[in-house]
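Handout, section B. The chain below has 76 residues.
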Amino acid sequence: MKARVHVMLKDGVLDPQGEAVKHALHGMGFDGVGGVRQGKVIELDLEDGTGEDAVREMCEKLLANTVIESYSIEMA
């Protein structure tokens, strides 16, 4: 089984990487971009019996800084 974890900065937290990407896109002529938020995707190959609760615990303890980041989990 696989789990995919999407981690993003929470609303209101400055995203300097996103701002740099937006600036670069504008410099390339893509003026229709109003904002960019950059995050990360973590894909986990899980052993049988490892459920979403275990993945949530991984996120809370290591994969996401829950003070400034939010996360969502997709199980497949």
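Note. The chain has one domain: 2-75. Compare this with the example in section A.
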